[in-house]
User: What shape does this take?
Amino acid sequence: MPNSPKLPPDIVSRLRSLAHDLSNSIETLLQASYLLGELNLEAPGKTWVTLIADAAQDAAHINREIREVLRTQ
Assistant: This one.
């Protein structure tokens, strides 16, 4: 995004703080889904754990992209 306008510093700072807090929540989801995946669950439970784990991975990827954009601000 070489030609994108710069955000005001206070907005960038707030977004960085929110992205950091979001990272903490996502990490909790990733750890919990990992631990649940270690249990001997029946098929429906395993399906839900996989769904949660995949969504948490997607959220972590999106959050990393947001943080990368904020680094250029």
In short: The helical segments are 9-37, 43-71.
